[in-house]
Automatic annotation (TrEMBL):
This is Co-chaperone protein p23. InterPro entries: CS_dom (IPR007052), HSP20-like_chaperone (IPR008978), p23-like (IPR045250). Gene3D superfamilies: 2.60.40.790. Keywords: Chaperone, Cytoplasm, Membrane, Nucleus, Transmembrane, Transmembrane helix. The chain crosses the membrane at residues 135-157, 163-179. It comes from the Eukaryota. GO terms for biological process: chaperone-mediated protein complex assembly; protein folding. Pfam families: CS. One of its GO terms (cellular component) is protein folding chaperone complex.
């Protein structure tokens, strides 16, 4: 059964800060819809417990400009509002706010606090709008690797075919010379070369290679 992590929130006129207190989160998945539906799932803890949260935010948001940073101690989200304005509360509807959703007083600013500074948080994490772009880059890289691997296989196959043709040509040349000069050494080499070509189909040419090398050096 999944658990609910503690969630803290604060706002400015144009954005909402959502902090999910979850240390060493793994396999974190965060989704934000334009209608304000915010969902998060992750595992954490030594037992690998599953944590999930779904928030129906007070109003619509700009998911393309929103950002997320998954840190060691928490998951911090900067949610851009679709329209500027101060929300009366984080969630929509008249239902009671869940016990795990609390105000983040460290980042809070009131409506009359003009020019309130944004919290000093490293936003070097992911961008909601860049998730699809990252997936596209991974796909393109995978396709490039597949093409490269296919090319390597083709080059190896072509080289092998060329070598077989060369070996067959050498066998034919040796047979021609043997027929003219009746050289015993060349006759023996031609026989072994032909035997080697026949064994190529059985993928057992190692012994014949040593025989050919020994005979050539004799």
């Amino acid at each position: 059964m999944s658990r609910h992590p503690e969630v803290k929130w604060a706002q400015r006129e144009d954005k909402v800060y959502i902090t999910v207190l979850l240390s060493d989160a793994k396999n974190a998945k965060v989704d934000l819809q334009p209608d304000g539906v915010f969902t998060l799932s992750a595992t954490a803890g030594t037992d690998g417990n599953t944590y999930e949260v779904k928030l129906n935010l007070h109003d619509k948001v700009n998911e393309k400009e929103s950002k997320i940073n998954i840190g060691e101690r928490n998951i911090f989200c900067v949610v851009e509002k679709a329209e500027k304005g101060w929300w009366k509360k984080l969630l929509s509807g008249d239902a009671k706010t869940p016990h795990y959703v609390k105000v983040d007083w460290d980042k809070w600013a009131d409506e009359d606090d003009e020019g309130a500074a944004a919290p000093n948080v490293d936003l070097g994490g992911m961008d909601f709008s860049s998730l699809c772009l990252d997936l596209l880059r991974i796909l393109v890289a995978w396709e490039a690797w597949v093409v490269w691997a296919a090319w390597e296989v083709w080059v190896v196959w072509a080289a092998w075919e060329a070598w077989v043709v060369w070996a067959a040509w050498m066998a034919w040349m040796n047979l021609t010379i043997v027929m003219k000069n009746k050289n015993p050494k060349r006759l023996e080499m031609s026989k072994r070369l032909l035997k080697f070509l026949q064994r190529l189909k059985q993928k057992q040419p190692r012994e014949d290679i040593f025989d050919l090398v020994s005979l050539a050096l004799a």
